[in-house]
């Protein structure tokens, strides 16, 4: 066999490098700014928070750059441990109620024609065009002692005296639900909308009842959307502090409130950083479970 001339092979190598350069430069131009932004404003701050969590607090609220596990040991204190458990329970309750309310609504929207579905999705988003403080304060006006809700209950004779709704855990959870409900509806709608109607028709043709079709066909196939909704609702509910600050009036404390106070008025940055790391760990664990779950689902579909 005759060998290819060296000049030809060199020319092919140059062409390959040129083609690779043509593909690489546009990719770097697109991913480069995003990568730089994520490194500067996400990765580095997270690493700094983790670093600070292993430091200690000085006498005047400054950070003493000396390795210490004091902040993580403080998390095991009864007071902080109760707040962490309370926050987890409130976030879990919010997530369950958002799923219970959001799934039927998302299913109803997904069964409608596209033009009707888009209008219903718009109705969900319209309240979020207003300032969140206005929406939260409106709950205070509705549920205050002399508010419309208490007046209606007394007028109907259901209660003899006004009920204390404001600055309670119940009102805070209500505020969390109204804030987080769209984050449950949207991924659920996306998952249900992709569901093939032929599968539901095949299940009915094989003699399955509507409830059997829902639990054995619809629910398993839409579980990725359910888990996405869980992540999008549970994680913000665990760390948000504006809702509990306004509707709780400073009497209802969750993890987010303590983190805000530690970085603000109390000036205990290491403890606030340790609580932030706890939220990062919970977030990472949920995302890890989701990625594992997504791989299993892909295998099952195939």
UniProtKB/TrEMBL annotation:
* UniProt keyword Zinc present: no
Q: Name one GO biological process term.
A: transmembrane transport
Out of the domains of life, which is the source? Answer: Bacteria
Q: Membrane-spanning residues where?
A: 25-54, 90-109, 121-143, 163-189, 221-243, 269-290
What is the annotated localization of this protein?
Cell membrane
Bilayer topology reads: Multi-pass membrane protein
Which residues lie in coiled coils? Answer: none
Record InterPro entries: MetI-like, MetI-like_sf
User: What does UniProt give as GO cellular component?
Assistant: plasma membrane
Specify the ABC transmembrane type-1 domain's residue ranges.
84-290
PROSITE patterns to which the protein is assigned, alphabetical: ABC_TM1
Keywords, sorted A to Z = Cell membrane, Membrane, Transmembrane, Transmembrane helix, Transport
Family per similarity comment: Belongs to the binding-protein-dependent transport system permease family. CysTW subfamily.
- Return the protein name: ABC-type spermidine/putrescine transport system permease subunit I
């Amino acid at each position: 066999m005759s060998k290819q001339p060296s000049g030809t092979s060199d020319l092919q190598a140059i062409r390959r490098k040129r083609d690779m350069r043509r593909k690489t430069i546009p990719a770097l131009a697109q991913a480069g700014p995003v990568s730089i932004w994520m490194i500067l404003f996400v990765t580095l701050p997270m690493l700094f928070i983790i670093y600070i969590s292993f430091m200690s607090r000085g006498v005047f609220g400054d950070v003493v750059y000396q390795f210490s596990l004091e902040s993580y040991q403080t998390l095991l204190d009864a007071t902080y441990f109760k707040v962490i458990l309370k926050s987890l329970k409130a976030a879990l309750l919010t997530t369950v109620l958002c799923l219970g309310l959001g799934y039927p609504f998302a299913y109803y929207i997904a069964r409608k024609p596209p033009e009707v579905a888009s209008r219903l999705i718009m109705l969900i988003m319209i309240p979020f065009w207003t300032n969140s403080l206005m929406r939260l304060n409106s709950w205070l006006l509705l549920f205050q002692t002399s508010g419309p809700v208490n007046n209606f209950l007394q007028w109907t004779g259901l209660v003899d005296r006004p009920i204390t709704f404001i600055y309670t855990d119940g009102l805070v959870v209500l505020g969390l639900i109204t804030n987080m409900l769209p984050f449950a509806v949207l991924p659920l709608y996306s998952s249900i909308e992709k569901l093939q109607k032929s599968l539901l028709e095949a299940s009915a043709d094989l003699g399955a009842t509507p409830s059997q079709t829902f639990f054995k066909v619809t629910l398993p196939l839409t579980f990725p959307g359910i888990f996405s909704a869980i992540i999008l609702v549970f994680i913000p509910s665990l760390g948000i502090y504006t809702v509990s600050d306004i509707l709780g009036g400073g009497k209802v404390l969750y993890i987010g409130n303590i983190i805000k106070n530690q970085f603000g008025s109390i000036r205990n940055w290491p403890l606030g950083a340790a609580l932030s790391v706890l939220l990062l760990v919970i977030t990472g664990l949920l995302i890890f479970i989701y990625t594992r779950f997504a791989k299993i689902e892909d295998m099952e579909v195939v």
